């Protein structure tokens, strides 16, 4: 999570329910903020039973919870980064609302032409379909290249943001370390977080 960014509601709720303090090097919340928190917010609305099951699992068996989150994220086309939490494999037009991969029209056209080619017995028709398939494959190839270029541009933008964030951390090193020492040495009864 970037500075000033609010944790999604489900992640905040998990934290209020007695989740752990933030572990150095790990994002806050049950499986990190950002994408995981947004996913949990949507899950809470769309499937309250599954959300409750994961919530219970989080409180009782954190390791099993993380394995379950990894499995769900993989099913939805996401990947788990040990430092950053769940990240989209692709946050681009090829992804659906919940991160599910969505077939591109160009690839669907190729699949349909390949099916027609296999089903056709007539030699001339097969030749015509094959030529059309060659053109469709070229189009699909260009679309995939375009998507890769988009991904690279997106990653470069993210890298620029992370570098700026790192620079801000380095510039504020002393203040951040002083605040952390204060936080670590504060008596439990004076801490804001925790079960009230």
Can you give me a brief rundown of this structure?
The protein is mainly alpha-helical and 196 residues long. It has a domain at 1-102.
How many helices?
Answer: 7
| Integer average pLDDT | 75
Strand arrangement, major sheet: 1-2
Distance between the termini: 25 Å
Question: SSE string, helix = H, strand = E?
Answer: HHHHEEHHH
Given helix and strand content, the structural type is: mainly alpha
* Assembly status: single chain
Low-confidence runs: 18-33, 79-101
Helix content: 55-70%
Shape: elongated
Instruction: State which percent range the strand residues make up.
Output: under 5%
- Describe the sheet with the most strands: 2 strands, antiparallel
Topology (SSEs and partners):
Layout: H1 9-16, H2 34-46, H3 48-60, H4 62-75, E1 78-81, E2 85-88, H5 105-119, H6 123-171, H7 173-185
Antiparallel strand pairs: 1-2
Helix pairs in contact: 1-2, 2-3, 3-4, 5-6
